[in-house]
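DM from R.C. (forwarded with permission)

"hey, sorry to bug you on a friday — could you get me a structure for this? deadline for the figure draft is monday and I only need the backbone to look sensible"
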Amino acid sequence: MIRAYKFLMRPTVGQQAALGGMLRDHCSLYNGALQERRDAYRHTSKASIKYGQQSAQLKDIRAFDPERQGRWSFSSQQATLRRLDKAFQAFFKRVKAGRTPGYPRFRGVSWFDTVDFPRDGDGCRWDSTPHDPVTRVRLQGVGHVKVNQHRAVVGKAKTVSVKREGRKWYVVLTAELPQPEPLPTTGSVVGIDLGIASFLTTSSGGHVANPRHACKAAAKLEVAQQALSRFPRRKAKDRTRNHQRAVDKVAQLHGKVRRQRLDHAHKTALSLVREHDVIAHEDLKIRNMSKAPAPRPDPEQPGAFLPNGAAAKTGLNRSIADAGWGVFLAILNAKAESAGREVMAVDPRNTSRACPECGHTAKENRPTQEKFHCLSCGHRAHADVVGATNVLRAGLVRRDANQA
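My reply, with the result:
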C-alpha cells in the first residue's frame, strides 16, 4: 500500500527565494503549455496537442531559457505538463458525461503552490540517515533543505513533492510499504450518522460534538477580511508591506481552522478504527447537499423572483463545509485500510425516518431534529441514534450479501 508523509521544511532565506522561483517558473511552464493548447484548438482546425508533443519540446525550452527553465529538474517539468494533461482529460470526461465542464484555467503565482518530483533520486533526494539528527531533502536548483521530520518514514520513498502553504514550506513523500498487520479484532460493529448538531452519532448512542472551528474563528476572520478589503487588489510583487501582512493574517486564520479540522477528523477516525471491526456510514453526496437552491421566478411579475430560502440554505451549506464530512470519511477509510478494518457506505435514504422496531417509514416519524416517535408502534428514541442503527443494519446486510 501507499502511504503519504508530510513534513515541515526549514529553508534559509536564500532557499526560500529559490523555492519561490521554482514555483514561478513551473507556473510559467504550465501557463505556456495551456496557451499552446488553446491556440492549437482555435487556429489549427481544432487539432489537440497531447502531453507527448509538449514533453518533446522541453529540451528546446530549457536550452532557450537556461536561467528560468534550464536550472530545474527535467522530470519535475514533465510532471507539471502531466498535471495540465490530467486537467484536460478531466475536462473532456465532464463534457462527455454532460456535466458542467470547467475549461482548464491559467494559474496565477499564488494559485500554483506544488511542484512534483515523480521519482526519488531524479531531481530530488530524500536524505534520512538514522545517525544524522538533521534530516534534509536535496532539490535541484535549491540545495539541501532542512526538514522537521517528526516521525519515521516506513518504506522507501517513491515520489517527492514540494508544497507552499502561506509562508510555510512542506515536503510530501509517498512511500510504498507492505500490508501492515491488522489490529486485534474486537467483535464490535457500529453504524455512524453524520450531522450538524452532533458531528456524528453512533448506533450505541454515543455522540461526538461538532467542534465548529470555522464558526468559532468567524469573528477574527471578519476583522482580518475587513482589514484586507481596505487595500486595492494587486499582484503579489506590487503589494506593500501592510497589504502583505493583511493577506498573511487571513491565510494564517484559514490555515489554523483547516489544521484544527484535520486534527479532529484524525482523532475521531482513529478512535472508531481502534474500537470497531466494522464501521458503516451513509454514502453522502456532499456536493449535492450543499448546492444553492434554484431561483423561483414570480409568474405575476416578469423579472421578479419569489423567496426560495437561499439565506437559510447558505447557513446550512456553511455548517456542512465547517463539519468537513468528506475529509473525515477519507481519513476514516485510509485508517481502516491500514488497520484491517471494514468500512461500508450505505444508501442514506429514509435512514432517519424508518422505525428500527417495526420498520414503519414515514416523514412524520421525526417530528423534530432530535426526536423520533414512530406513529405505528410508538417507539421513541433520539433521531440520530435511529439513523445510525438503520445505517448499521443496512451495512451488515450488505456485508453478508458480499460474503455470500
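R.C.: lifesaver. The mean pLDDT is 91.
me: no worries. The chain has two domains: 8-152, 189-403.
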